[in-house]
Amino acid sequence: MASTHLSKKRILIIGKTGVGKSSIIRYMGGVDNNEKKPTISNKQRGETFENTLYKNEEFIFADTIGFGETNLGGRPSNIMIKNLIVFLVNNNEGFNLVIYVIDNDRIDTYVKNTYQVIDSILGPNIPKILVRTGDTAAVGELIPQDGLDEWKRENCTFMNGCRVSYANIDQMIQENKPEIHIKVAQENIEESNRKLQELISLHSNTDAQRLYDPKTLPDRLKQTVTLVYKLWKLDETTLRSTLCLALVVLKNTEKNIFVDSSTLYML
């Protein structure tokens, strides 16, 4: 029997543009509200904090754009701040698990910085796992503990991790790849799904953890935006003006949030 909406585990998927987030969701059967699967493409990097929800029989995936690009050096835009607020408001019911997606075995500065930002939004109590994409030689294998320990020394704690491979089957067919190659790619996808489902079941919180209390959202927003600006190394004047903008947008976005003038003066 299919799970009800309320019982589905909510999973936030984080990673740089092009690492394979959409491929994971697509091949795990995720569709949006229009029953469309995510498109597999080489999208441009984004700093907009956009997110789209996809669901299958068991999970609700939040696919993100911009959450993995927090050290590119560009100035955060008004659109980014607005979308960050929308993300907080629309996802207040929280998440059961966070998946960080990488495409190589190096300690990635993108992930390190994003980890800090996400922790400021979600808090430290939502489990996180690490997924290495594109590893056709070791599909389904766990990331060794010494690899996870190396990340932990960089203040990124993962409960577990695995290696997966999600080739673009449609593209392989269009390019007339040999049937044996397509068959191997499909087998890799099936094994990747099996291992990911296993880790999700093993490490997800039973209940999604809410992101904030409405009374504390302005403070949570201030904390997160301040951290983003610290990572971007921007000046305090710019930070203050952006925080004021953020709170004005917040008042217009979430009617249940009360932001008085004293909150602005405290920035």
From TrEMBL:
InterPro entries: GTP-bd, P-loop_NTPase
Domain G: 10-118
Pfam families assigned to the protein according to its UniProt record, in alphabetical order: MMR_HSR1
GO molecular function, one term: GTP binding
The name this protein goes by in its record: G domain-containing protein
Origin species: Rotaria socialis
